[in-house]
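Annotated sample (chain length 283).
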Amino acid sequence: MRLFDLRVICCLLAVILLSGCSSSVPVLAVPEQVSYDDELKIAQISQQLSRKDIDIATRMQLIFERGIIYDSLGFKAFAQSDFSHLLSINPKVPDLYNFLGTYALREGDFDTALMSFNTILELDRNYAYAYLNRAIALYRTGHYYAAQQDAQKFYQYDVNEPIRILWLYLIEKENDDKAALKLLQQRYDLMSDKTIYGADIIAFYLGHISESKLMQNLQKGVENNRQLAERLCEAYFYLGKYYQSKGDNERAKMLFKYALANNIYNFVEHQQALYEMKLLETK
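Output written by the structure step:
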């Protein structure tokens, strides 16, 4: 079957499935693909690395750049190889531990993940995303109070970013559902700009808007397919978590699949949607 025909069929199936699982208007983006520019950049970097006359600092920078491209394209094994190689040369680069820690987190290797995030914070106490990633690792292992402390620190770096508020809520509700919802409302009220699309996810959680309205608002101001795919990756993940908390695992599973379908590999929501799918499939 031709690739074009296969894509058309897949899109039609996605529309049918999404229509069946949600009362909101289906919103789809073209899944992000490996572009010619990405392939060309990787080839150019690899060609540069084959030279014998580049100094170690330049070589490390090129390997790091290639690893980031691999990571964004979902080529985790290649990215992990590059980052591990760099770590063997210089074991004091926090970014390397963060990438490797998130890979371990995605695979459920929480001991390795926590070790990586702890190392980051030993090297740099202000590495904000280490607090989020460690909070998620602690959350996954049932250490909710410790996770809450880390999520609170991550939130304090930017109290107006919806994703920080949402992760703090998801963790806090494991300790006290009613108190967490009250705190979610308070943090939402403190936001300086509630017009950004991520704030609508919080508004949905609070019952202020419908799922249909959320998906409509999500499309406002979208400038390109990549931006739409990123928003859908986030929105579908948090919708999945919402319905999961209501005991509707089938709907949650479908929404996690939609989050994954956008191919935004370097988003925490994509990584965690994949892990959620693994958990649901074992039930």
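Annotation: Confidence is low (pLDDT under 50) at residues 1-25.
Annotation: Residues 158-222 form one domain.
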